[in-house]
Design brief:
Layout (H helix, E strand, L loop, with lengths): L4 H30 L4 H14 L5 H4 L20
Length: 81
């Protein structure tokens, strides 16, 4: 089932406002427990988790910055000049 453009925008906003801060807290806890003294290990973990979080939501964020494809096109030929 494909989501409409408006639904994808709402889900993307929800993911960014609610999901991402939770994911950041989980990533921080993981980084401090797994590799607390290793700079390179912690850096690799942050880079890996920074890439991995977007994979499930790639289809939701794809095309969000574009104009709504379902909207009526705006016509400017009706100018009363």
């Amino acid at each position: 089932m494909a989501l409409s453009y408006k639904a994808r925008r709402r889900v993307a906003l929800l993911v960014l406002v609610v999901g991402l801060p939770i994911y950041i807290l989980v990533a921080t806890v993981l980084a401090t427990t797994i590799a607390p003294n290793s700079f390179l290990g912690t850096l690799a973990l942050y880079v890996g988790l920074g890439i991995v979080w977007i994979m499930p939501f790639k289809s939701v964020f794809k095309g969000i910055g574009q104009a709504d494809p379902d909207a009526d096109p705006v016509r400017f030929d009706d100018d009363p000049q």
